[in-house]
Amino acid sequence: MNFRLGALLIATTLSACVTPPSDLPKGTPLEAGTLGLGGAPVHPVPDQWWKAYGDPQLDRLVERALDRNPGLAQAMSRLDDANARLGVARAPRLPKVTLDGTELREQLSERDIIPPPYGGQWIWRGEVGLNLSWDLDFWGRQTALIDSADLRSQASRLDIETARLVLAGSLARSYLQLDHAYRLADLAQQAELQRTQLEKLTRRRVEAGLDTQVDLRDAQAAVPLSRIDASDAQASVERAVHALAALTSDGADAYAGISRPQVALQTQVALPTELPANLLARRPDVIAARLRVEAADAQRLAAKAAFYPDVDLTAFAGFGAIGLDNLLVGDAAQMGFGPRFHLPVFDAKRLKAEYHEANADIDAAIAIYNATVLQAVQQVADRLTDIRAATRELAEQQTSLEHAEAGYGLAEKRYRAGLANRLVVLNAETRVLDARRHRIDLIDAMAQSRVALLLALGGSFDPAATASSSSFVPIAAATTAQVTP
Asked: Which is an annotated Pfam family here (predicted)?
């Protein structure tokens, strides 16, 4: 026993020859306090937020997409892989027990430790028994590897949340585009009818000597252009339908008979008007990136622990004998136990390279985290700007539309009173159609921006709910990834 303790002491002394590097990663994670996140904290919007639009067809499409989309299936497969790796990382923490046996036909040396009559003879040598080994993990290497795998598993689970959020948002936005395309198609049909009427009226005026051939050619040129606009509008409807089919993993013609959307655009989900303080704790992709920084740091700690002696507790019990007839008799029993250590005395270059590789992985993870944070802040800031701009533009456009409709009403009255011709009325109607088209575009831009803001804020993702349903570790509002020395 004193020999074993001495060997362990020698190993510990020799480890000084293989000193782990002391350098740390160069990257620094961004902190919430430096990003202007000072608004009131935002709370998760209701689950299945798309139901606020009150369109059952949209609800069915989102549910179908969440069940069938290959992108979501890919994220789930990555989670399965991460969980499997976690199981592999946990395995060394448990004792390893094996049943081993050998049966050898060999010739013994006449000058070795076994004297005649066995020395120099061919004999059967047999051994069978249980062998146990248990890594005591004195320096926390296995613990660090488990932590790293666990954090990556949590990050993969959040990748699924991100995929679900993006998928539901993409389908909702495509559905809004379909609604927008239908509204523009209606206006295009009205414009085509109006241009056709204008051409007929101009022809009659030319025949009456009231207009010239130039006026007629202008009116005639407008008719095919209006038909092109109507065709483009119908093509936009079809493209929006194709986009929905792709998101639900269906064929391009799967929704050829889809009903016209009946979305309640006036329905408003409560959204903030400034950058919320808890933005970084609301975004699953940001939290996942932070967890991967911590996973890389745990991998660095494991690489550092590899410089120290690896101590195992070993034991064996079984039978060993010369001659198979004697293998399983009582006096052939053998057993033993004791520590076993492994020290990488002349492997420092490889270990140092692995340590520096782990540091580089941390820097890469921090860079990804910082990029994700900056992207999240920019997305929210941009969408808030878009919504504020759309709100102002809608107010101005409403005034413009009211003036155009008032002008159209006056033109109608003058026409009925015989003070103006039909051409004046049709021109006034054209201005109304243009104003309404602009308003449809602005309403769609507002709706799209609100969905985009909802997604940028993390949608209905709730870190607390995720924590209660898994091993996920929630973080505070001021999320920062810390690297341990």
From this structure: OEP
